[in-house]
Amino acid sequence: MTTAAPTGPAASASRAGGGRAGTTGVPRRVGRPRARRRKSGARGIALTALTWGIALLFVSPALWMVLTAFKQEGDAATDPPTVLFEPTLERFGGVVDSGILPYLANSMVATLVSTSLVLLLGVPAAYALSIRPIKRTQDALFFFISTKMLPVVAVVVPLYVAAAQVRMLDNVWTLVVLYTAMNLPIAVWMLRSFFLEVPKGIVEAAQMEGAGLPRVLWSVMLPVMAPGIAATALICMIFSWNEFFFAVNLTAVQAATAPVFMVGFITSEGLFLAQLSAAATLVSLPIVVVGWIAQRQLVRGLSMGAVK
Amino acid sequence: MSPTTHAAARLDPRSAERARGWARRAPLMPALIFMIVVTQLPFLFTIFYSTQSWNLVRPGSREFIGLANYAAVLTDATFLTAALNTVLITASCVLVSMALGIGLALLLDRGFQGRGVVRTLLITPFLILPVATALLWKHIMFEPVFGLVNFVLSPFGAGNVDWAAQHPVIAVVTAMVWQWTPFMMLLVLAGLQSQGRDVIEAGEVDGANRWQMFTAITLPHLRRYIELGVLLGSIYVVNTFDTIYMMTQGGPGTASANLPFYIYQRTFLGFDIGQSAAMGVIVVVGTVIVAMLALRLIFRSFMAGQEAMS
Q: Would you tell me the Gene Ontology cellular component terms (chain B) (predicted)?
């Protein structure tokens, strides 16, 4: 999952001297001339320690949140803060008892169904946009990306009115439609960049053997693109799960998602820090795991395929 | 359109070409139509609503009033404050997280023990539910008495500062910088790793020192990635709603309200459909002006990337 790089002390020792990881994880070129490597050894260790220190400092709020989730309320609110306590799972139980499960279920439905729809609409579109770049292709691409520039606040009023008129307020399918629209442009751009990478040779070879377009698409291109499609799906899942604006404005009781559940913790009176931490940890966990899995593809998704 | 082939020319050339054109475009159509219906249609309604005097708490009050809503919005001091806040919050969040992102990416761009783990740790803030991030910063980091920030700052003489109440913009920007730095780091890291090894070696042979190498070779190479990060970051950050909703509710007063939050307030707390629609249109016009420039840049950048790939 996190195999960024070196697999063994030897490899890492030599690469600490300035070697660079190739994008495939295999060092393209190992180290510098011997004489310089030793000189940079101490420096390398210092830099590594510095990197680790800064990284831990940077994520400490998240680590503290997870730690607090395992505390009793009494241990969570102490001045000064404490790291010595008896860990307990009680707070997680408390969150479940307070009725988080329907919210998680709604999030799950909105995320999984909208992601499926995005792929269903996005894969053919990206395919059409990846063959032969003509003027209209560029226009279509331009249109997709321009919808990401349209501030959501500018459309929420009519969406609210429309949903109210067709009695679709507080309905998880409304969110499904909106999340599909939210992620489709990103997915089209990302998938297009994957389509462009499919070697032309294998497509031509299949065509020579008389395979029609659907067959080329299904049994030649899609298998090659499977990792790319998976990555696209993971990116869409991240965005859908984390979405808040539509969820809070267009749902109430029935269709509210996990982010809306968290609104209950906004009031300052009777705030329970440990319970808050447990809830925050619980609702974040699925996407943190998905993101860790997708981390290699994260940049590509977030930049809509502009960067490998 | 490509020139007609001989085979097609033997039939009616125009209709054959049109048929092929449609066949090529057909797979695109469902997605395109879906996007137009879900995003463009509502916006047309927004424009329509913006000419109406329409408040949901006054039933039967709806009538056409032309541009009066726009006049009201543009002279609304709170709207202007919110616009200013939007620019301030977006710019500071994007620039600070980009600076931090570059720093972290440079640290990460070497092979070392546990590099994968460190990268995984560093991207985590980006993945945590933004709403949870806001609560984490508000109640656990910035809490006046039990919060970690005041605890860490106490040796420097800081008292029980209630950050979210006393310095709401700083509090909001801090939480957002924490959330967005990983994104910038990932982009810059991708840029660093796409850098040709041979250029670096040539620089080393020429005897350039580290700083010279960085400013003369690395930074120009990173430019495209930095531009992209600033652009995409701005697109996402300018629409931020959750952090402000959860941390400050735009308060105290309207001190930390940005445009998305203020329009939300007018819509769902003030029920003023007409005015909030007018605000929405103004925001879109403003965005379009900025985006025209940005889109051009983005498109160039994207197309350059695609060419390099194929």
A: plasma membrane
